[in-house]
Structure prediction request, 319 residues.
Amino acid sequence: VIAISCGSSEQHVTNEITTPEKEIFVPDFNADSAYAYVEKQVSFGPRVPGTPAHSACASWLEATMARFADTVIVQGFKDRAYDGTVLRGKNIISSFNPENKKRVLLCAHWDSRPYADYDPDVSVHDQPIDGANDGASGVGVLIEIARQFSMQHPSIGVDIIFFDIEDYGPPQDQQSTETENWGLGSQYWSRNPHLTGYRARYGILLDMVGVKDATFLMEGFSMMYAPSRVKKVWSLAAGLGYQSYFPEEYGGYITDDHYFINTIANIPTINIIHLERDSQSGSFFEHWHTTSDNMEHIDKSTLKVVGTVVLNVVFREKG
Prediction:
Protein backbone atom coordinates (compact mmCIF):
# COMPACT_ATOMS: atom_id res chain seq x y z
CA VAL A 1 0.00 0.00 0.00
CA ILE A 2 1.44 3.41 -1.04
CA ALA A 3 -0.03 6.47 0.76
CA ILE A 4 0.72 9.97 -0.63
CA SER A 5 -0.10 12.96 1.65
CA CYS A 6 -0.92 16.29 -0.01
CA GLY A 7 -0.18 19.09 2.50
CA SER A 8 -2.69 20.17 5.11
CA SER A 9 -5.66 18.94 3.09
CA GLU A 10 -4.77 15.47 4.33
CA GLN A 11 -6.08 13.93 1.15
CA HIS A 12 -4.75 10.43 0.57
CA VAL A 13 -4.31 8.53 -2.65
CA THR A 14 -4.04 4.79 -2.04
CA ASN A 15 -2.86 2.29 -4.62
CA GLU A 16 -3.53 -1.32 -3.62
CA ILE A 17 -1.33 -3.90 -5.23
CA THR A 18 -3.01 -7.29 -5.27
CA THR A 19 -1.67 -10.64 -6.37
CA PRO A 20 -4.14 -12.62 -8.47
CA GLU A 21 -5.19 -15.88 -6.82
CA LYS A 22 -3.52 -18.86 -8.35
CA GLU A 23 -5.92 -20.89 -10.47
CA ILE A 24 -6.56 -24.33 -9.07
CA PHE A 25 -6.52 -27.17 -11.55
CA VAL A 26 -8.91 -29.98 -10.71
CA PRO A 27 -8.86 -33.02 -13.03
CA ASP A 28 -12.07 -34.13 -14.69
CA PHE A 29 -13.46 -37.26 -13.05
CA ASN A 30 -14.17 -40.00 -15.62
CA ALA A 31 -17.38 -41.79 -14.64
CA ASP A 32 -17.02 -44.41 -17.40
CA SER A 33 -13.66 -45.40 -15.96
CA ALA A 34 -15.01 -45.56 -12.41
CA TYR A 35 -17.95 -47.67 -13.56
CA ALA A 36 -15.54 -50.11 -15.23
CA TYR A 37 -13.60 -50.43 -11.97
CA VAL A 38 -16.81 -51.20 -10.09
CA GLU A 39 -17.79 -53.75 -12.74
CA LYS A 40 -14.39 -55.42 -12.58
CA GLN A 41 -14.67 -56.00 -8.83
CA VAL A 42 -18.14 -57.48 -9.20
CA SER A 43 -16.91 -59.78 -11.98
CA PHE A 44 -14.82 -61.74 -9.46
CA GLY A 45 -17.99 -62.73 -7.62
CA PRO A 46 -18.88 -61.98 -3.99
CA ARG A 47 -15.67 -60.83 -2.28
CA VAL A 48 -16.21 -62.68 0.98
CA PRO A 49 -13.05 -63.26 3.05
CA GLY A 50 -11.72 -66.79 2.65
CA THR A 51 -13.07 -67.29 -0.88
CA PRO A 52 -11.20 -67.50 -4.21
CA ALA A 53 -13.08 -64.39 -5.42
CA HIS A 54 -11.79 -62.43 -2.43
CA SER A 55 -8.21 -63.54 -3.09
CA ALA A 56 -8.39 -62.79 -6.82
CA CYS A 57 -9.85 -59.34 -6.27
CA ALA A 58 -7.17 -58.51 -3.70
CA SER A 59 -4.44 -59.34 -6.22
CA TRP A 60 -6.14 -57.21 -8.87
CA LEU A 61 -6.56 -54.25 -6.52
CA GLU A 62 -2.92 -54.39 -5.50
CA ALA A 63 -1.68 -54.59 -9.11
CA THR A 64 -4.04 -51.83 -10.26
CA MET A 65 -3.08 -49.40 -7.52
CA ALA A 66 0.61 -50.16 -8.10
CA ARG A 67 0.15 -48.69 -11.59
CA PHE A 68 -1.03 -45.38 -10.17
CA ALA A 69 0.37 -44.79 -6.68
CA ASP A 70 3.88 -43.96 -5.53
CA THR A 71 3.81 -46.76 -2.98
CA VAL A 72 1.43 -49.64 -2.18
CA ILE A 73 1.42 -51.57 1.08
CA VAL A 74 -0.72 -54.66 1.68
CA GLN A 75 -1.40 -54.96 5.39
CA GLY A 76 -2.28 -58.56 6.15
CA PHE A 77 -4.08 -59.32 9.39
CA LYS A 78 -6.14 -61.98 11.18
CA ASP A 79 -9.24 -61.31 13.22
CA ARG A 80 -12.10 -63.21 14.75
CA ALA A 81 -15.62 -62.74 13.38
CA TYR A 82 -18.78 -62.50 15.47
CA ASP A 83 -19.25 -66.31 15.26
CA GLY A 84 -15.68 -67.17 16.24
CA THR A 85 -14.45 -67.76 12.69
CA VAL A 86 -10.85 -66.62 12.23
CA LEU A 87 -10.64 -64.52 9.08
CA ARG A 88 -7.62 -63.39 7.11
CA GLY A 89 -7.91 -59.87 5.72
CA LYS A 90 -5.91 -57.46 3.59
CA ASN A 91 -5.97 -53.69 3.93
CA ILE A 92 -4.59 -52.23 0.70
CA ILE A 93 -2.87 -48.88 1.29
CA SER A 94 -1.76 -46.66 -1.59
CA SER A 95 0.16 -43.43 -1.06
CA PHE A 96 0.80 -40.33 -3.17
CA ASN A 97 3.55 -37.82 -2.30
CA PRO A 98 4.66 -40.09 0.58
CA GLU A 99 7.32 -37.61 1.71
CA ASN A 100 4.74 -34.85 2.33
CA LYS A 101 3.78 -34.68 6.01
CA LYS A 102 0.56 -32.81 5.23
CA ARG A 103 -1.75 -35.69 4.40
CA VAL A 104 -5.38 -36.56 3.70
CA LEU A 105 -6.90 -40.03 4.05
CA LEU A 106 -9.46 -41.41 1.57
CA CYS A 107 -10.99 -44.82 2.16
CA ALA A 108 -13.67 -47.41 1.35
CA HIS A 109 -14.21 -51.10 2.09
CA TRP A 110 -13.60 -53.67 -0.64
CA ASP A 111 -15.11 -56.86 0.82
CA SER A 112 -18.76 -57.79 0.27
CA ARG A 113 -21.48 -59.09 2.57
CA PRO A 114 -21.62 -62.88 3.11
CA TYR A 115 -25.39 -62.77 3.70
CA ALA A 116 -28.32 -61.36 1.72
CA ASP A 117 -30.11 -61.08 5.05
CA TYR A 118 -32.40 -58.20 4.03
CA ASP A 119 -33.56 -59.78 0.78
CA PRO A 120 -37.35 -60.05 0.41
CA ASP A 121 -36.78 -63.70 -0.49
CA VAL A 122 -36.05 -65.45 2.79
CA SER A 123 -34.65 -68.48 0.97
CA VAL A 124 -31.54 -66.53 -0.13
CA HIS A 125 -30.68 -64.97 3.24
CA ASP A 126 -27.64 -67.22 3.60
CA GLN A 127 -26.26 -66.34 0.15
CA PRO A 128 -23.46 -63.77 -0.39
CA ILE A 129 -24.13 -60.58 -2.36
CA ASP A 130 -22.34 -58.89 -5.25
CA GLY A 131 -21.93 -55.70 -3.24
CA ALA A 132 -21.83 -53.49 -6.33
CA ASN A 133 -22.95 -50.46 -4.36
CA ASP A 134 -22.09 -51.60 -0.84
CA GLY A 135 -18.36 -51.70 -1.20
CA ALA A 136 -17.40 -51.75 -4.87
CA SER A 137 -18.81 -48.30 -5.72
CA GLY A 138 -16.60 -46.47 -3.23
CA VAL A 139 -13.55 -48.44 -4.28
CA GLY A 140 -14.27 -47.79 -7.96
CA VAL A 141 -14.48 -44.05 -7.34
CA LEU A 142 -11.20 -44.08 -5.44
CA ILE A 143 -9.38 -46.10 -8.10
CA GLU A 144 -10.38 -43.52 -10.69
CA ILE A 145 -9.23 -40.76 -8.34
CA ALA A 146 -5.91 -42.60 -8.01
CA ARG A 147 -5.64 -42.72 -11.79
CA GLN A 148 -6.16 -38.97 -11.91
CA PHE A 149 -3.53 -38.47 -9.19
CA SER A 150 -1.03 -40.46 -11.26
CA MET A 151 -1.36 -37.89 -14.04
CA GLN A 152 -1.60 -34.81 -11.83
CA HIS A 153 -0.37 -35.10 -8.25
CA PRO A 154 -2.13 -32.89 -5.69
CA SER A 155 -0.03 -30.49 -3.60
CA ILE A 156 -0.52 -32.54 -0.44
CA GLY A 157 0.08 -36.16 0.47
CA VAL A 158 -2.83 -38.55 0.03
CA ASP A 159 -3.33 -42.08 1.30
CA ILE A 160 -6.08 -44.27 -0.18
CA ILE A 161 -7.00 -47.28 1.96
CA PHE A 162 -9.25 -50.13 0.92
CA PHE A 163 -10.36 -51.74 4.18
CA ASP A 164 -11.16 -55.42 4.39
CA ILE A 165 -13.70 -57.42 6.47
CA GLU A 166 -16.00 -54.45 7.00
CA ASP A 167 -19.24 -56.27 6.24
CA TYR A 168 -18.85 -59.61 8.04
CA GLY A 169 -21.14 -58.70 10.93
CA PRO A 170 -23.90 -61.01 12.24
CA PRO A 171 -26.99 -61.62 10.10
CA GLN A 172 -30.23 -59.83 10.78
CA ASP A 173 -31.67 -62.51 13.05
CA GLN A 174 -28.54 -62.44 15.24
CA GLN A 175 -28.10 -58.70 15.57
CA SER A 176 -26.45 -57.35 18.71
CA THR A 177 -25.29 -54.01 20.05
CA GLU A 178 -21.62 -54.99 19.68
CA THR A 179 -20.21 -52.38 17.27
CA GLU A 180 -16.87 -54.24 17.21
CA ASN A 181 -18.41 -56.97 15.06
CA TRP A 182 -18.17 -54.64 12.05
CA GLY A 183 -15.27 -52.85 10.38
CA LEU A 184 -12.59 -55.33 11.42
CA GLY A 185 -10.08 -54.02 8.87
CA SER A 186 -10.45 -50.39 9.90
CA GLN A 187 -10.24 -51.35 13.57
CA TYR A 188 -6.98 -53.20 12.90
CA TRP A 189 -5.47 -50.34 10.88
CA SER A 190 -6.56 -47.73 13.41
CA ARG A 191 -4.63 -49.61 16.11
CA ASN A 192 -1.76 -50.56 13.77
CA PRO A 193 -1.30 -47.84 11.14
CA HIS A 194 0.92 -48.68 8.19
CA LEU A 195 3.44 -46.08 9.38
CA THR A 196 4.39 -45.48 13.00
CA GLY A 197 2.93 -42.19 14.18
CA TYR A 198 0.82 -41.77 11.05
CA ARG A 199 -1.34 -38.64 11.03
CA ALA A 200 -3.67 -37.06 8.50
CA ARG A 201 -5.47 -33.72 8.56
CA TYR A 202 -8.75 -35.54 8.06
CA GLY A 203 -10.28 -38.55 6.38
CA ILE A 204 -13.16 -39.16 3.97
CA LEU A 205 -14.90 -42.53 3.80
CA LEU A 206 -16.98 -43.46 0.75
CA ASP A 207 -19.70 -46.07 1.27
CA MET A 208 -22.61 -46.88 -1.02
CA VAL A 209 -22.01 -44.03 -3.46
CA GLY A 210 -23.25 -45.54 -6.72
CA VAL A 211 -27.04 -45.72 -7.08
CA LYS A 212 -29.24 -43.34 -9.07
CA ASP A 213 -30.35 -40.13 -7.33
CA ALA A 214 -28.44 -40.95 -4.15
CA THR A 215 -28.81 -38.67 -1.14
CA PHE A 216 -25.79 -38.14 1.09
CA LEU A 217 -27.15 -36.80 4.35
CA MET A 218 -24.84 -35.38 7.01
CA GLU A 219 -24.16 -38.56 8.99
CA GLY A 220 -24.23 -38.41 12.80
CA PHE A 221 -20.74 -39.57 13.79
CA SER A 222 -19.26 -37.38 11.03
CA MET A 223 -20.98 -34.38 12.59
CA MET A 224 -19.87 -35.45 16.07
CA TYR A 225 -16.17 -35.83 15.28
CA ALA A 226 -15.56 -33.62 12.22
CA PRO A 227 -18.42 -31.10 11.87
CA SER A 228 -16.33 -28.39 10.20
CA ARG A 229 -15.14 -30.85 7.56
CA VAL A 230 -18.69 -32.01 6.84
CA LYS A 231 -19.86 -28.45 6.38
CA LYS A 232 -16.91 -27.62 4.15
CA VAL A 233 -17.47 -30.65 1.89
CA TRP A 234 -21.23 -30.10 1.66
CA SER A 235 -20.70 -26.40 0.93
CA LEU A 236 -18.24 -27.24 -1.84
CA ALA A 237 -20.71 -29.75 -3.30
CA ALA A 238 -23.41 -27.09 -3.29
CA GLY A 239 -21.07 -24.70 -5.07
CA LEU A 240 -20.59 -27.33 -7.77
CA GLY A 241 -24.36 -27.57 -8.21
CA TYR A 242 -24.85 -30.87 -6.38
CA GLN A 243 -27.25 -29.76 -3.63
CA SER A 244 -29.74 -32.49 -4.49
CA TYR A 245 -27.09 -35.14 -3.81
CA PHE A 246 -25.62 -33.37 -0.77
CA PRO A 247 -28.59 -31.74 0.99
CA GLU A 248 -27.87 -29.89 4.22
CA GLU A 249 -29.90 -32.37 6.22
CA TYR A 250 -28.84 -34.53 9.13
CA GLY A 251 -28.83 -38.31 8.87
CA GLY A 252 -28.57 -41.08 11.46
CA TYR A 253 -25.51 -42.39 13.30
CA ILE A 254 -23.90 -45.18 11.25
CA THR A 255 -21.27 -47.51 12.73
CA ASP A 256 -18.93 -47.64 9.77
CA ASP A 257 -15.19 -47.62 9.18
CA HIS A 258 -14.99 -43.89 9.96
CA TYR A 259 -16.29 -44.51 13.50
CA PHE A 260 -13.16 -46.51 14.37
CA ILE A 261 -10.80 -44.09 12.60
CA ASN A 262 -12.30 -41.31 14.73
CA THR A 263 -12.40 -43.14 18.04
CA ILE A 264 -9.20 -45.22 17.83
CA ALA A 265 -6.85 -43.39 15.44
CA ASN A 266 -8.18 -39.94 16.44
CA ILE A 267 -8.22 -38.72 12.84
CA PRO A 268 -11.34 -36.59 12.18
CA THR A 269 -13.09 -38.55 9.45
CA ILE A 270 -16.42 -38.09 7.69
CA ASN A 271 -18.62 -40.58 5.89
CA ILE A 272 -20.11 -39.84 2.48
CA ILE A 273 -22.81 -42.50 2.59
CA HIS A 274 -26.20 -42.89 0.93
CA LEU A 275 -28.86 -42.38 3.59
CA GLU A 276 -32.56 -42.31 2.76
CA ARG A 277 -35.33 -40.86 4.87
CA ASP A 278 -37.67 -43.75 4.09
CA SER A 279 -36.58 -47.19 2.93
CA GLN A 280 -37.68 -50.78 3.32
CA SER A 281 -34.23 -51.61 4.65
CA GLY A 282 -34.05 -48.71 7.08
CA SER A 283 -31.73 -45.79 6.37
CA PHE A 284 -29.96 -47.23 3.34
CA PHE A 285 -30.71 -47.73 -0.33
CA GLU A 286 -33.46 -50.11 -1.36
CA HIS A 287 -31.21 -53.05 -2.33
CA TRP A 288 -28.91 -52.92 0.70
CA HIS A 289 -27.79 -56.42 1.79
CA THR A 290 -29.87 -58.15 -0.87
CA THR A 291 -29.03 -60.16 -3.98
CA SER A 292 -30.14 -57.13 -6.00
CA ASP A 293 -27.11 -55.07 -5.01
CA ASN A 294 -25.64 -55.60 -8.47
CA MET A 295 -24.42 -53.63 -11.50
CA GLU A 296 -27.98 -53.04 -12.67
CA HIS A 297 -28.33 -50.34 -10.02
CA ILE A 298 -24.98 -48.56 -10.46
CA ASP A 299 -25.42 -45.10 -11.95
CA LYS A 300 -22.57 -43.26 -13.67
CA SER A 301 -24.03 -39.85 -12.84
CA THR A 302 -23.80 -40.51 -9.12
CA LEU A 303 -20.25 -41.83 -9.44
CA LYS A 304 -19.39 -38.65 -11.33
CA VAL A 305 -20.82 -36.41 -8.61
CA VAL A 306 -19.00 -38.12 -5.76
CA GLY A 307 -15.70 -38.36 -7.61
CA THR A 308 -15.87 -34.71 -8.66
CA VAL A 309 -16.57 -33.55 -5.12
CA VAL A 310 -13.69 -35.56 -3.63
CA LEU A 311 -11.24 -34.42 -6.31
CA ASN A 312 -12.21 -30.80 -5.64
CA VAL A 313 -11.76 -31.28 -1.91
CA VAL A 314 -8.25 -32.69 -2.33
CA PHE A 315 -6.98 -30.30 -4.99
CA ARG A 316 -8.27 -27.27 -3.10
CA GLU A 317 -6.44 -28.35 0.06
CA LYS A 318 -3.49 -26.06 0.69
CA GLY A 319 -0.17 -27.78 0.82
